[in-house]
Amino acid sequence: MNKQEKKLKEMNKAFKALLESEADWLANLANSTAILSQFMDDINWAGYYIWKNDQLILGPFQGKTACVRIDEDKGVCGKAYTQRKILVVKDVSEFPGHIVCDPLSKSEIVLPIIVAGEAIAVLDIDSPKLARFGELERKYLAEFTDILIENTNFLPLMEKF
Questions:
Q1: Which of 6, 33, 93, 121 qualifies as a cystine partner to 62, CB 3.0-4.6 A?
Q2: How many Å apart are CA 70 and CA 56, to the nearest integer?
Q3: pTM of the model
Q4: Of 111, 110, 102, which Cα lies nearest the Cα of 67?
Q5: How far is CA 85 from the centre of its chain?
Q6: CA dist., res. 108 & res. 124, Å (int)
Q7: Among candidates 101, 68, 74, which has minimal Cα distance to 87?
Q8: 116: which DSSP letter?
């Protein structure tokens, strides 16, 4: 196990321990962005867009100010939401329809948050480095979102579904 994988594994262990005593969706989303910023190197933004009123709306995040609303199927976040799958973009300048919130971001990974069959949000992580995210991040961040979903009460957020 290399240093990067060890750090990601440690991140998920710390995240699971953090959520053992808290189930509130807002608190857990907020703390999860802090954990990501603490454990992941070479990222400049980590946060959520929450599905509300037929758009993805900015939720808890760490980083510079961000785009507030993203339409379904627009940009990397909108595509990940619509397709209900993890998207890894090695060079955002080559992604058709990429939405530029921070021109310093060069690569991105977006993971849909699916609860009871409904996509309720996406986790978006940006990096100023090209090709920052690969299979290792995909694996451990998918586990990270599973930990979030298993330990969080999203029912108040899902009342609109």
A1: 33
A2: 5
A3: 0.95
A4: 102
A5: 12
A6: 7
A7: 74
A8: T
Compute the C-alpha angle 50/152/161, nearest 5°.
45
Question: Domains in the chain and their CATH numbers?
Answer: 3-158 (3.30.450.40)
Tokens of 59: 């939720």
CA distance 67 to 44: 14
* Cα distance from N-terminal residue to C-terminal residue, the chain: 41
Q: Could you give the C-alpha distances from 134 to 5, 55, 110, 131, in angstroms and in order?
A: 11, 28, 12, 7
Nearest alpha carbon to residue 99 among 67, 59, 72, 51: 67
Residue 161: DSSP 8-state: -
DSSP 36-103: HHHH-SS-SEEEEEEEETTEEEEEEEEES---SEEETT-HHHHHHHHHTS-EEES-GGGSTT---S-T
Residue 128 DSSP label: S
pLDDT > 90 in the chain, percent = 88
